[in-house]
Write a structure and sequence with these properties.
347 residues; alpha/beta; seven-stranded mixed sheet; homodimer; Rossmann fold
Amino acid sequence: MSQSLSSNRQLLLTSRPHGRPSVDNFYLANTPIPTPAQGEVLLRTVFLSIDPYMRGRMSDAESYAAPVALGETMVGGTVSRVVSSNLDGFSKGDWVVGFSGWQDYALSNGQGLVKLPASLVEPSHALGILGMPGFTAYMGLLDIGKPQAGETVVVAAATGPVGATVGQIAKIKGARAVGVAGGPEKCRFAVETLGFDACIDHKAPDFAEQLKAACADGIDVYFENVGGKVFDAVMPLLNTKARIPLCGMVSMYNSTGLPDGPDRLSLLMGTLLKKRISVKGFIVFDDYGPEMPGFMKEMGQWLSEGKIHYREQRVEDLEQAPKALCDVLEGNNFGKLVVRVGPDDLT
Amino acid sequence: MSQSLSSNRQLLLTSRPHGRPSVDNFYLANTPIPTPAQGEVLLRTVFLSIDPYMRGRMSDAESYAAPVALGETMVGGTVSRVVSSNLDGFSKGDWVVGFSGWQDYALSNGQGLVKLPASLVEPSHALGILGMPGFTAYMGLLDIGKPQAGETVVVAAATGPVGATVGQIAKIKGARAVGVAGGPEKCRFAVETLGFDACIDHKAPDFAEQLKAACADGIDVYFENVGGKVFDAVMPLLNTKARIPLCGMVSMYNSTGLPDGPDRLSLLMGTLLKKRISVKGFIVFDDYGPEMPGFMKEMGQWLSEGKIHYREQRVEDLEQAPKALCDVLEGNNFGKLVVRVGPDDLT
């Protein structure tokens, strides 16, 4: 870690993956620590968030955000401390959440930079339960999914930061929560610790049958974050007037082409028609930015009351970020993955 | 027509089609005219509506409504006159809209039966612009599509009762209306008479390129009523935050299996995700029943002001109904298809 005190380590995207990304898509550069101009702050990264959407930013296929250019620092959400400030409203030592990317140090003109409230006991939570993943779960489930008491809500990646939050909010709203996760340990955790009514192992050979059995009254809300075989098993179980908030398709991010036929596009549209289902894709900060303070307040309340359990997995050292992203895309993490980039302490 | 005065002609569904329906799926029966019990009215059909949804009722595949049982009278919306009444609120001679099905006479206990307002100059309009198709266009476009001034709205079957209404309401709301129809005559009618900004012939070999050229700013609302190759051409043109009201997929109704691959289900879901699109299937009477009076009032106003043009195609004689349905499913009609079953006059 001493190296980061005298120079800026940056993980540059140097090639685009075909299929699964690898650590070789990145290059570790050492550059001088930059100096903030007037109107800028210098930030030192403490925590870096690793999220599935990053796979999309590595590709130059059309997507909702521009790709990271080759040779540029990989993007990512961060919790940082202000090292020095030439910007009104920020002072040395402030904790902030922003988008410094995969590096030790970054300059910011304040755009997209938010000071962490003093009440936040764990700063890294601003990257998870009180940040983008928690906000995604909250808005997608409540604004699009609209679960009613007694309805059945299904979500995959049930121990990940989005899925775990979806299931727990569904329970708060009186719905049944059925999770999908990879392996018996995660499924046990979802039921015993997070309070899901059931959690099905998608690695089980009879996964679809187990899901059907766990959803005896069909599925009213399917919070879609993975796609693939989970959606295949969900589709025939959807009830009339079901709602599908669509925030991700992790299982497809590494795919290199369309699967073989038959072509089920018309089957999907026909299902949406016959069952009067609504599907809505969303990106939480773009679609719901102004709702963030309300979310922070309610989620903070639920956390303080012990109604929401949050699991974080920490990886030490910025240089482990590429491997951590590969792991997240394969579902090898257990809980919200955060990289510890630098110490809490500024000195 | 004299036969209908002494007995009741009924078109019974006697076999289920595999693929395209044929007139041989129906049998013309002659039965006694029924007698209304206490609490019933006897109705004589004047007009029978022919609509694409009827194909679904001929199949026993899972759908939003139960299939017509073999040997039963085919279902359909009708405008009728009351021949005799043992039901409070209905009197001999009243004009009503209901669901008598494909027959000359029917009994009703009043459920689903609505008296036509005296202001309705053309009773058959209760089956079209002021009935289910017009209501479908109105609610789907305004409640789900939500077209904004300057946006581009695309709809297929642009000279049919739903598509024509969608395009004209889009224009009233200040949006651009781009239609899709089969053949130059329908396309010319859509532009010159209905006021569409453009209408593309889906039979043209370069249909997709023409549609793209007509939608230079992309597509903000796609009102889906046909599916198939029209949707294929629309999908890449959809803008961020596009809305897709989904009320039908006529092009798929006669298909006997899924098309060959590749499997584009994940491509569709990925498009909805990346572009934050919403899709919502709906059935107008089930989802929007209470909105009917408001629709009737506003649409009546538009009609009286000449803001909405409505084209109806009449087919003479109940016995032509099977062929008329086959034509509608092939797009061989031009305007809303209505079968004249009996005379206006009761005597």
